[in-house]
């Protein structure tokens, strides 16, 4: 938690981390999460890392520990459905979701904060607070790693619901990403209402 500790020494009492899941999918939503620790002396949760490096069981354990400790962690999720993504594009939809997620959490918990977003760019906030990008932040910044786990678990749960509605696309296995089998299923069955029609494998269909 060294990045957070450095910021606290500069006078920022709460540090928010934000990340997304589902940007590279061709079906289903983008899920954005923001997370903050509510106590400076909080011990880190064992095993926290970039969500992509964790097993599903490890992610669920950490997700449950975050979301059931309401005195220790503040967090939220914003879900952007495929229709909204098609109306804009993935980068714009993600930035708008990050903006909403950060601002909603700050307002709900009245947090005097510094915000760190995974990736190369940050959203343009409408509230007066510092916000910076951090490349590979989900592997280096504790609060971003927490947000990445929340976003990933939420996205995976939504994908299972998608699979129940449209099992022919294999969403439970491909998670909405354009795997070879998924693209073959699109060619065979055509797209379903959950597909992003502006995604490369679906353009012109």
**Major sheet: order of its strands?**
3-2-1-4-5
Class from secondary-structure proportions: alpha/beta
How far apart, in Å, are the first and last alpha carbons?
Answer: 47 Å
Residue windows where pLDDT falls under 50 for at least 5 positions: none
β-strand amount? 15-25%
Number of helices: 8
Q: Based on DSSP secondary structure assignment, what is the total number of beta strands?
A: 5
Largest sheet: 5 strands, mixed
Shape: globular
Order of helices and strands: HEEHEHHEEHHHH
The value of Rg in angstroms is 17 Å
Helix content percent band: 40-55%
Mean pLDDT: 92
Q: What this model shows, in words?
A:
- With 205 residues, the chain is an alpha/beta fold.
- It contains 8 helices and 5 strands; from the N terminus they run αββαβααββαααα.
- A 5-stranded mixed sheet has the order 3-2-1-4-5.
- A hairpin with an 8-residue loop joins β1 and β2.
- α2 packs across α6.
- The longest helix has 24 residues.
- It is globular, with a radius of gyration of 17 Å.
- The model has no long low-confidence stretch (mean pLDDT 92).
In short:
The protein has 205 residues and is α/β, with parallel strands linked by helices. Helices cover 43% and strands 17% of the residues. The chain has eight helices and five strands; from the N terminus they run H-E-E-H-E-H-H-E-E-H-H-H-H.
């Amino acid at each position: 938690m060294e990045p957070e500790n450095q910021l606290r020494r500069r006078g920022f009492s709460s540090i928010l981390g934000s990340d997304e899941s589902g940007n590279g999918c061709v079906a289903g939503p983008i899920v954005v999460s923001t997370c903050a620790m509510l106590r400076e002396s909080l011990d880190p949760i064992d095993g926290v890392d970039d969500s992509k490096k964790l097993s599903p069981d490890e992610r669920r354990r950490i997700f449950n520990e975050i979301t059931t400790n309401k005195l220790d962690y503040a967090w939220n999720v914003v879900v952007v459905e495929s229709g909204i993504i098609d109306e804009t594009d993935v980068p714009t939809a993600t930035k708008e979701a990050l903006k909403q997620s950060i601002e909603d959490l700050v307002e709900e918990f009245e947090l005097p904060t510094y915000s760190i977003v995974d990736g190369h760019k940050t959203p343009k906030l409408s509230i007066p607070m510092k916000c910076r990008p951090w490349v590979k932040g989900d592997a280096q910044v504790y609060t971003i790693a927490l947000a990445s786990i929340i976003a990933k678990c939420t996205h995976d749960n939504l994908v299972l619901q998608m699979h129940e509605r449209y099992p022919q696309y294999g969403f439970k296995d491909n998670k909405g990403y354009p795997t070879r089998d998924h693209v073959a299923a699109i060619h065979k069955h055509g797209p379903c209402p959950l597909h992003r029609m502006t995604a490369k494998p679906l353009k012109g269909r």
